[in-house]
Specification:
Layout lengths: L16 H23 L26 E6 L5 E3 L2 E3 L1 H15 L4 E6 L5 H13 L4 E4 L7
Parallel strand pairs: 1-4, 4-5
Antiparallel strand pairs: 1-2, 2-3
Helix pairs in contact: 2-3
Length: 143
């Protein structure tokens, strides 16, 4: 029997294609995560974030058909991380209802210390604009 005439190269060869795939997936993941972190609605310091939990955690940040309004104890309104006068919030609700109709959604975040009288005007504007999709941030039960 004759030995094979083919010579093999010396050393090992590694296939780095899977490694490159994993690196690209990590890059895409971190780009997407940083985008969502930048566009996420900001919760002001006056609201205790340990007492708040979104009613739905799959909130898509930056969705034009959804407006998240945060109301502080002293009556300030935050929309997209900026302090907005109540009249402007009302105008945003009315404009969203006109632009998107039944698909428009308003999410209201507040702390339990916020008086109802501060939140009531926003609820009335939603009712007048026929916004049926109004969701509240709820407090997690203790224990």
């Amino acid at each position: 029997m004759r030995p094979p005439s083919r010579t093999r190269p010396h050393g090992l060869r590694f296939n780095i294609t899977p490694l490159i795939d994993v690196v690209f997936l990590l890059i895409i993941f971190f780009l997407a995560a940083s985008h969502f972190a930048r566009t996420e609605d900001v919760v002001p310091e006056e609201i205790d974030p340990t007492r708040l939990a979104d009613a739905e955690e799959d909130d898509e940040a930056g969705n034009p058909k959804r407006m998240t309004a945060t109301v502080t104890v002293d009556g300030r309104f935050y929309v997209r991380g900026e302090v907005v006068p109540r009249e402007r919030v009302e105008a945003l609700v009315q404009q969203g209802a006109i632009d998107f109709g039944d698909e428009f959604e308003v999410r209201l975040r507040t702390d339990r210390r916020t008086p109802y009288g501060v939140v009531e005007p926003l609820l009335l504007v939603c009712a007048r604009a026929n916004v049926a999709n109004l969701k509240f941030t709820v407090r997690e039960p203790n224990g």
